Structure formats: C-alpha cells, structure tokens
C-alpha cells in the first residue's frame, strides 16, 4: 500500500515542496531513499519508538520511504512526523483521507511528543503557494506560521494528536493571527532609548546622521567612554520597519532557528553583535547546507563589531563584498544560495592597545609605532566603506550627574524619517539605491553639487588635514545627508564643514 505526505525543505531563505512517499509491501527490511542525511536516516529509530509508544505497530515487512525530489539533499529532524504518519497510513493502521491536504513537519521524541523545528515561515509560505489547505506542525512553531494568511495552521503537541485530528475524531481550530495587528502592536518597542544617555551630544549627532543616510560608522575612543551603549541605541532611531521588511527579517531568523518559542513576527530592527572570536563562516554564513550568518541576521538592522582590530583580518575582509552588494552569495557543489545582507555596519575600537591614545587625562603607555600598527589591523578597503569616523571622549562627572533631560529616541527618529523621505523621493526611479550611502561615484557627482566656496573649503581641508582621496566621496555623501536633515535642497558650507570632521582615521598623523 502507498501513502503520501508533504513537507518542505529550506534552501537559502526559501522553501521547496518535498513529497514523502511510503510504500509497505511483501518482503523485509526498511529502506529510506531520496538523499537523506544522517539526521533524517536516524529518524527511523525515533519514528519506531513513537509509533510503538502510542499503541501502534511498526511494520515488519518491506517498507520504503522516498523523499522526493530525489536529487535534492534532505537535512534535519523535521521529517519525523510526516514519515510516521505515512508509515501508519500505508500500513492501514489509520484512515486519514485529509493527509494529502496538509503540509506536515515536526521532530518526534521517543514518546511521540513533538519538538519545534526551524525554517517554519518559508515552509508555510511554500504550502500556501502550492495550494495546500493547511500546515500541521509543533504547537511552539504555530505562532510563527500563523502570520501567513489563507492557510490553516494547526499546532499540535504529539503524534497521537495529529492522528486524531486527521481521522476526524478530534477537531482543532486553526490558529489565526492578524499580521498587521501584530506588526503595529510591536513596531518600535525598544528597551533602550537615547533619553537615558547623558552627554555625548556629538556622538548622538553622528549616529543621527548615520541613521538618516544609512551610513556605516566607526567609533574610536578609550574604554568606558560609552561606545557600546551608544551603538545599542542606534536601532531605536532608525525608521520603523515596513511590513515587508519585517517579513523578510523574520524569514531569515526562522531559517537560522533564531526565533524564540511562540514568536511570530520580528517588528523591530535587529541588532547583532558577534564576538571578535567569530569565524568568517559565522559572520557571512555557510556550511554544508548553507545557513545565514550574522550579517544576514542583521538584515534591515545593525551589525555591531566591538573591538574591531581584534577580529581576524580574514573575517573582516569577507565583509567587503556584502557591504557593496547588500547580499551574500554562497556556492557549493550542488547548490548556490543568496542571503540578503542589507545592514548598517557600526564598529568600535580603542585608539591603541592600552586604550588611552589621545585621552584628555590619562597617558598612553604604548611604544612608538604601536598605535599605527594597531590601526593597520583594519584594512584600508574596509575603512573605505565606512563613511563616518567618530572620536568618542569620556563623559565628565558634571555631565553624568546633570538633571538636564536628554533628547529621546522618538524625537531623533522623527528627524531621521523626514530625511529618509527626502531620499525616497530623490531615488524613486532607481531600484538599487534607497539612501545616500548607496550612491555610486556617478550619482555623487550628479546629486552632491557644491558651490565654489564649498569646493575651496573641501580643497583646503584635504590639503591641511592630509585627507586621503577616498575621503572625498564620503564627505560629499555625508554632507548631503546633513543637508537632508536640515531640510535644505543645497549642500551648504556648514554641512560640508560638519562632514569633514567625521574623517578622523583619514587624517595624516592622527596616530602620532
């Protein structure tokens, strides 16, 4: 007898339909075919135990389980439930006419209790795309799948519950969620706020400019100056998620298994802060079955690299292409996948190994040449992709104890949104540019026009401060963003002057 169940396999951030065919016939032995990995092969023992524990029998005659299409590798434990139901149906132990109307996924414990799986959201989208009535899955994953409309999401706790639902002896109501309500209830609910930061007004201003133009930023300062604290608050001033962005980000976190239990939709911009011991694969993604890395988990949000020079150079260099192309392409012998990686890079570093170079009160104890050698750990090509270099100084006691209220993230965000709206109109006809930071050299020349006085100022600054040639376009991009924040059509002298000060690491002799 032949039975079919259906599930999904995730590749990249999308899913493909998998047909699980089970044949029970005369003969002996159990066969599983269709390029299953070791985890899928091991499902036989879990399935057998779960079937017996719930009072059914594992067939002792020839059983063939085929995972089709047979040329795509199947990985993970999420095929346990559809395999078990297929075996019970093919052996005539259950009558489940509704079996082929549902996508079914879930990992079985030895007693038949279901454990959650990852990648549920793209699989639910694939189920709806293929016209299935619903999706049967572990209850802990139901909230995640329920944000897909026009699909009956049935959350269950055990193999027995799945059987009684499919044979009609128990009724389970589909979990229904209004995606828009969930989104609007949680959007912009951040635990951190700039209102809690006393002093550091110049750093807040720099981060506001970075948020307004989508610019990458690096903060250089001594230990305890507040670099990490300020970086963690950057997502709170970024423009709110659109529903499409929220769904994109949730899908990536679903594939990576980073969504918490009973979590449905990510409605706030992600903030990822990998440790400096992270490998290049952990950062950009990869593996035998490619999984998203930290830069993809930061998609539509912020990637924070603390103590930047402590990261291995090879790890930092792999970010150069994603910073330009806003995606990561990972190729293997059998598969090639693209992960989105449109993130803002925020980095922080001490100015030297001891941390006190250029400190107003403490003396640097590093030997001559050590500071420059420390800075050289960050390559020029990577610095070339960072628009703002900000020097962070310690907060004085008077500033820390001041009763003067600091500006809240909500007020700063209003100005950022207004500046982004100007950029949306400016780049309305260009599908590859959404913010000032994305402009190429041609667009910079076209859009960032400056008058004669501005040219003289910029020329003088580059000569006097010893700014490198790569600083030229960056200064113009940042000055365009500053003008947008000021609601100015033209780039004025004061906008250029402010942009010039954000090129610390380009100045000759800064490390001396």
Characterise the protein shown here.
The chain is α/β, with parallel strands linked by helices. The chain folds into 3 domains: 2-177, 2-Layer Sandwich (Ribosomal Protein S5, domain 2); 186-414, Rossmann fold; 439-512, no CATH class. The chain is built from 22 helices and 18 strands. The chain has helices at residues 38-41, 43-53, 80-90, 120-129, 139-145, 159-166, 179-186, 201-213, 227-232, 243-255, 280-284, 294-297, 313-317, 320-325, 370-375, 380-383, 397-400, 409-426, 441-447, 452-464, 471-485, 493-500; strands at residues 2-11, 14-25, 30-33, 62-68, 102-104, 107-108, 114-115, 134-138, 152-156, 217-220, 271-272, 285-286, 291-292, 302-305, 327-331, 336-340, 344-349, 388-391. The chain has a 5-stranded parallel sheet. A 4-stranded mixed sheet has the order 1-2-4-3. Strands 5-8-9 form a 3-stranded parallel sheet, with helices on both faces. Strand 6 and strand 7 form a beta hairpin. Helix 8 runs parallel beside helix 18. The longest helix is centred in the C-terminal third of the chain and has 18 residues, at 409-426.
How many independent structural domains? 3
Helix content: 25-40%
Rounded to an integer in angstroms, the radius of gyration calculated over CA atoms is 28 Å
CATH architecture of the largest domain: 3-Layer(aba) Sandwich
Low-confidence stretches at least 5 residues in length (pLDDT < 50)? none
Task: Write down how many β-strands occur, each being a DSSP E stretch of 2 or more residues.
Answer: 18
CATH fold-level topology of the largest domain = Rossmann fold
Distance between the termini: 81 Å
- Name of the CATH superfamily of the largest domain: P-loop containing nucleotide triphosphate hydrolases
What profile does the largest beta sheet have?
5 strands, parallel
Instruction: Please tell me what the overall shape is.
Output: elongated
Give the strand order of the largest sheet, numbering strands 1, 2, ... along the chain.
Answer: 11-14-17-10-18
Strand content: 15-25%
The number of helical elements comes to 22
CATH classification class of the largest domain: Alpha Beta
Global structural class:
alpha/beta
